[in-house]
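Design a sequence for this backbone.
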């Protein structure tokens, strides 16, 4: 039995859920999200509770049970509260600017990097060294943060680069310079 899958999803006020033809639509104050539900999983919607169950006891159906419940819960949380990831830029001369829906990153390369934000993602830049990415789709927010971080990953000797806020970087000792 899936520990995650058997938990019910309680709908907060103001959230509307519609399930037709294998497609689940969740509407809330922050927006609308849609997802195709796998046919091996059954989704039941009662007044304010969504339950997920496998249609049979095959390995695939049991694997998809908890996954589907977690994805639906992320949709409900996304349209009510939203998700955010914070990145910080560490390094002398490293900075970021925002021009509309484009981030201009100066990361020690010979040219600034222009990164166009995908639809549904908003960015806020603080002090030219901190980026806050927000959106209703948890997967898209995380993927966008990973793409931005990929431009200059934190290096282990000085810790320079783009890191998640609060991320611990394991530092290495440089060459001893001895004999």
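Sequence:
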């Amino acid at each position: 039995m899936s520990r995650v899958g058997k938990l019910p999803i309680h709908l907060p006020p103001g959230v509307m859920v519609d399930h037709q033809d294998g497609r689940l639509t969740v509407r809330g104050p922050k927006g609308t999200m849609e997802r195709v539900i796998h046919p091996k999983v059954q989704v039941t919607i009662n007044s304010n509770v969504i339950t997920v169950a496998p249609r049979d006891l095959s390995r695939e159906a049991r694997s998809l049970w908890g996954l589907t419940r977690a994805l639906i819960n992320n949709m409900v949380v996304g349209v009510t509260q939203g998700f955010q990831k914070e990145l910080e830029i560490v390094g002398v001369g490293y900075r970021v600017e925002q021009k509309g829906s484009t981030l201009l990153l100066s990361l020690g390369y010979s040219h600034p990097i222009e990164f166009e934000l995908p639809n549904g993602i908003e960015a806020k830049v603080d002090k030219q060294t901190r980026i806050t990415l927000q959106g209703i789709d948890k997967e898209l927010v995380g993927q966008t943060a990973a793409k931005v971080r990929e431009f200059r990953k934190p290096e282990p000797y000085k810790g320079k680069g783009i890191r998640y806020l609060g991320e611990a970087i394991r530092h290495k000792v440089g060459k001893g310079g001895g004999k």
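Residues 83-164 form a domain with the Outer Surface Protein A; domain 3 fold (CATH 3.90.930.12).
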